[in-house]
């Protein structure tokens, strides 16, 4: 192509600058395709310690780096981070294939790097070739060494095996990782490399016995591999044989917060209200079969349900927190206690869900409290800074989906969140500002919203700074609004009482109002009659029972109760009749009087029936069954007459 282009240029008599431009483009392509230079930095030793004592694995990598170059080194790359990723689905995948896994951040949640206990700047490159770059605060001079401590927090790495267990079974989990780390950009050998696991218990089902001819060492709940001597730093990891698998017992509470919405409401009158809505899940082995409350309470839950947990402890950020509440959808839950922490700087709240948390079970609840605003808000002129903890009040619980809402006073502007990312690699935080309208608001209050995925316990305890501008005179906005509203009401009341706004009603309107009121009274009377019918039905059932059982005690008590109820209803009927008489509803009054007469007759019939039946029970031979049946027919006739009159009345 180059030769062809050159001939074309000669043919077209192009100038010398065109040739130079083409040469520069060719040189740029060559430099772009060239691999990055190999670093001459040496790793004297590499020691890894992985703690599996809880449900969140934590790894500490100790490196001794030696600068063998002729200039100071300002940064170091930890290589492809595929070594830290989960690889249980397909053991045959190569390291290059693992590095293209887009779900990296679901397994590696938090990274820090320190030299002499001083945090260094860390940076995570973008996928697919994700690498961890450490930028030193002070460059490593040539021919000198530094010890670097790197801390990693893993999420979703402990897998229950078996995945389902019975209530009384212990929980067993599996953890897998590579025994060695590879550094493709370093050619020198690593003098010594080792890895140590600290398990949750000494009850180990199985573990990898040997890696590259080096036998594993086990002592109590610790298992060590190595040291591996003089291995090349860029040596390729063998996916199968260099993999460590541990299967052990871990009954630590597998508390996982699937969803957390935290609302902070800032009141410039001196209060900070906090409300946290939780969806908590036991992420361990799921419960197989039903839950037995009887078996659970027979003994200590650590033996009857060792893999479950019964309570959670929330650590509130202020010892002066007050109005603490704990509730769910049903209502307030009283099984909670508050006490100062051991250091006396915070308040610990022990809460108990309504039921023990077994594997796979969820619990939804809300925790809220108030704290003095002066402890968390600093003022710099018209600028304010709110400092508060970022994540959950439960220090050992990772969060899958986190949403932070901060409601600040109306009139605030220039709102921004500051979280120092230099000393760690958290996941990115998505931010937005919404408008929330509530009482006494005009334009609405700004609400800062931050969402985040996969929040580790370490990141939850970090603090953030929310900066905003707010004028001090804006505090008077709501009081002045209330005063103005009250003043306006007083003025309107004064004007209202000084003007006669009454308009006399016409005879047609008065007649319509009377008819409407009479209709309401008729509806009230029908409702009272329906109450009487219910009482008669109970009397009829009692009378039938008396005839069937030849006992009159039940009927007598029912009759006495009905008589008292009838007296109350009669008083209300008299009141209705008086009001109808005032409205001169003569036709309605006559119909109501006829119904009342029939009602008295109906009550007399059933009383007479009861009297005759009682005499029959007592052995009176003069009582004739035919007379009882005749009275029953008369009673039914009265009922039909009353119902017909009611229909006519309506």
TrEMBL record:
One of its GO terms (biological process) is protein N-linked glycosylation via asparagine. One of its GO terms (cellular component) is oligosaccharyltransferase complex. It comes from the Eukaryota. The chain crosses the membrane at residues 480-499. Component of the oligosaccharyltransferase (OST) complex. The keyword ATP-binding does not apply. It comes from Percolomonas cosmopolitus. It is a single-pass type I membrane protein. Residues 614-648 form a coiled coil. It is found in: Endoplasmic reticulum membrane. This is Dolichyl-diphosphooligosaccharide--protein glycosyltransferase subunit 1. Belongs to the OST1 family. Keywords: Coiled coil, Endoplasmic reticulum, Membrane, Signal, Transmembrane, Transmembrane helix. Subunit of the oligosaccharyl transferase (OST) complex that catalyzes the initial transfer of a defined glycan (Glc(3)Man(9)GlcNAc(2) in eukaryotes) from the lipid carrier dolichol-pyrophosphate to an asparagine residue within an Asn-X-Ser/Thr consensus motif in nascent polypeptide chains, the first step in protein N-glycosylation. N-glycosylation occurs cotranslationally and the complex associates with the Sec61 complex at the channel-forming translocon complex that mediates protein translocation across the endoplasmic reticulum (ER). All subunits are required for a maximal enzyme activity. Pathway: Protein modification; protein glycosylation. Pfam families: DNA_repr_REX1B (PF14966), Ribophorin_I (PF04597).
